[in-house]
Design brief:
With 625 residues, the protein is α/β, with parallel strands linked by helices. It contains 22 helices and ten strands. Among the domains are: 4-310, ABC transporter type 1, transmembrane domain (ABC transporter transmembrane region fold), CATH 1.20.1560.10; 549-609, no CATH class. The chain has helices at residues 4-10, 12-45, 52-98, 101-106, 109-127, 129-151, 153-200, 202-207, 211-263, 269-281, 283-310, 371-378, 401-406, 422-426, 436-445, 449-453, 472-486, 502-513, 527-530, 550-556, 559-568, 580-584, and strands at residues 332-339, 348-355, 360-365, 386-391, 394-395, 408-411, 490-494, 519-523, 535-540, 543-548.
Length: 625
């Protein structure tokens, strides 16, 4: 993890230029009261008009110098702050991208957005304008005090005491503000999360008429955020007037005491004038101290939050010297695999199967049986707690994550499309080497080309966030086209045709059968999606309850058969006689076909519609676009 000091060190030369410009600008500013002293003592009191033009040229030179070096100072500080914030945001985003799936199980999107955006913006301020002013205030104060002590050390004790008082107030205020900013940062993340979730799920909110409830939830967080900011303001308002009182009293007190010293002959009138000018110049650092403390405390709190993200380490890592396969054939093997997440019950137990390259495995099971976890272990989103997963007879833990994941095309049940064109979404897997012909071929195979080509911009149509504007079936077909366009040796379909009508699903199944050299894992609730697989496994409570071909599983009359009956009723295949299940004692629902709700594993497919009417979306229905 790079520390904040590491980023500053990278731009040390630029910061040195900025600080040098700041020192020159402030030093020139401190010369002006000296010229004023000579103007009073030599020209006004001493009547030496010959020095007037030189003093005026001196004032002009100071003004021009300050103009040049102030510009260099401010521009350089702003540039460095922008560069460092950009580098920090880039590195934080890369770090987050490199974290494992279990991190995102614990962290919500709103909090990550707050860390990447708002917190880094506060650090940007601290390293740019606020940081510049802090350095300027410190140097400005030190050089003014030196000049004052050179003029009259007794009178200089007054501004010294004032600065010590202001410094003490600033320290107390910073401590109180530090805790408040920690809470503000946390609540800001919570507020972002609520807003992000509701905006992303606005259609669900409206569908359930939950607008009032969600508004109330948002307002409760908004109220807490408001209260915390008011608490911050209360601290600031309580202490800031103290700075103002000191800055107003200081020049007046300086004139009163200084006047007495001039009368006593310990100072000239010109020196007194310069001293008063210095005392007026020391006012603004005192006034700025409260605001700078406020901003600096906010940046410190933000940096602590970002460091907590950096303390997170990926649980899935590569070996120091990972295996690189010359060519991935696509053979997959699960060898006595068990899996559970932290603080959770066992999700998978003793799973073993082998899928030869080019073969097809079907996986069925009730919701929560562990089907998707098999895919996640194959891609090494998580590691198995027992057993091993192999790709081409190599343990996936020994392979590079890049080679493993780029050779597996996944169509997940939760379709995610980016706010880009359809063409860019389909090319997502291999943008650099996927041409328009491949995109169109994949779209045709996924039965997506027809509705895409009816759109005005066709493949250049920009779809909304997460595919809004498309129907569920259209999004699934674009997702399938995206996987087919990659042409990887392993293809995984995780309940990816659930929103399609039977006819479209059948056409996609025909396409899959033509992929002779692609290893396919098909996870589904529908019998029709897996019936042509070389082997089908049925999961129950995380373990393999049944395995075999479609015909073999029907002959067993177990969970698979019950699912078949729940979806197809009394329509039995030729290999099964109607009397067989009852005689075998396994077709429990055959005697009472009116109760398929208790049958088998496919509970999400318990009320299937007849094939002619089954689709949630009919081919040619583009009303959702």
């Amino acid at each position: 993890m790079k520390k904040l000091s590491d980023y500053i060190w990278e731009y040390r030369m630029s910061y040195l230029l900025a600080v040098a410009s700041l020192i020159i600008a402030v030093t020139l500013d401190m010369l002006a009261p000296r010229l004023t002293a000579h103007m009073v003592d030599d020209v006004i009191v001493g009547k030496d008009m010959g020095k007037l033009k030189y003093l005026l040229l001196g004032f002009l030179g100071i003004g021009l110098g300050r103009c040049i070096f102030q510009y260099i100072k401010e521009y350089t500080f702003d540039m460095n702050g922008s560069r460092i914030s950009g580098d920090m945001r880039r590195d934080l985003f890369r770090h987050v991208q490199g974290l494992s799936a279990d991190f995102f199980d614990r962290m919500n999107t709103g909090e990550l957005m707050a860390r990447i955006k708002e917190d880094i913006d506060k650090i940007w301020d601290a390293l740019g304008y606020v940081g510049m002013l802090l350095i300027e205030v410190i140097y400005h104060t030190v050089i003014i005090l030196v000049c004052m002590y050179m003029l009259n050390w007794k009178l200089a004790l007054i501004p010294t005491a004032a600065m010590l008082l202001c410094g003490s107030i600033a320290v107390i205020m910073e401590r109180k503000l530090g805790q408040v900013y920690e809470e503000i940062s946390e609540e800001n993340a919570a507020l972002n999360t609520v807003a992000e979730e509701n905006l992303a799920g606005v259609r669900t909110v409206k569908a359930f008429a939950r607008e009032k409830y969600e508004i109330g939830k948002f307002l409760s967080h908004n109220k807490k955020y408001y209260d915390l900011n008011m608490e911050q303001s209360a601290v600031f308002v309580r202490y800031y007037p103290m700075f103002t009182v000191v800055t107003k009293v200081l020049p007046l007190l300086t004139i009163l005491v200084g006047g007495k010293i001039v009368i006593d002959g310990e100072m000239t009138l010109g020196q007194m004038t310069a001293f008063v000018e210095y005392s007026m110049n020391i006012v603004w650092p005192m006034e700025m101290l409260g605001w700078l403390t406020n901003s600096f405390s906010s940046a410190v709190a933000s940096n602590k939050k970002i460091r907590k993200i950096y303390e997170e380490k990926p649980s899935i890592t590569e070996m120091a010297d990972p295996v690189r396969l010359d060519h991935v054939e696509g053979k997959i093997c699960f060898d006595h695999v068990s899996f559970h997440k932290a603080d959770m019950h066992e999700i998978l137990h003793d799973i073993s199967f082998t899928v030869e390259a080019g073969k097809t495995l079907g996986i069925m099971g009730a919701t929560g049986a562990g089907k998707t976890s098999i895919v996640q272990l194959l891609q090494r989103m998580y590691d198995a707690t027992q057993g091993a997963v192999y790709l081409d007879d190599v343990n996936v833990k020994e392979l590079s994550l890049e080679q493993l994941r780029t050779n597996i095309s996944c169509v997940m049940q939760d379709v995610f499309l980016f706010s880009e064109t359809i063409n860019e979404n389909i090319k997502l897997g291999k943008k650099s080497c996927t041409d328009s012909g491949t995109v169109k071929k994949a779209s045709t195979d996924a039965q997506a080309s027809e509705f895409i080509e009816r759109m005005e911009a066709q493949y250049d149509t920009v779809i909304g966030e997460r595919g809004v504007g498309l129907s569920g079936g259209q999004k699934q077909r674009i997702s399938i086209a995206r996987a087919l366009a990659k042409r990887d040796p392993v293809l995984v379909l995780d309940d990816s045709t659930s929103a399609l009508d039977m006819e479209t699903e059948h056409l996609i199944q025909e396409t899959l059968q033509t992929l002779a050299h692609t290893t396919k894992i098909i996870i589904a609730h529908r019998i029709s999606a897996v019936r042509n697989a070389d082997e089908i496994i049925v999961l129950e409570n995380g373990a393999i309850a049944e395995r075999g071909t479609h015909e073999e599983l029907l002959e067993k009359g177990g969970l698979y058969y019950e699912t078949y009956r729940s979806q197809y009723g009394d329509t039995l295949p030729d290999c099964i006689s109607p009397a067989q299940p009852a005689e075998a004692g396994i077709g429990r629902e055959a005697e009472n076909p009116a109760q398929p709700a208790e049958a088998g594993i496919g509970r999400e497919a318990e009320n299937p519609e007849p094939p002619a009417e089954a689709g949630r979306e009919k081919e040619g229905d583009y009303s959702g676009v």
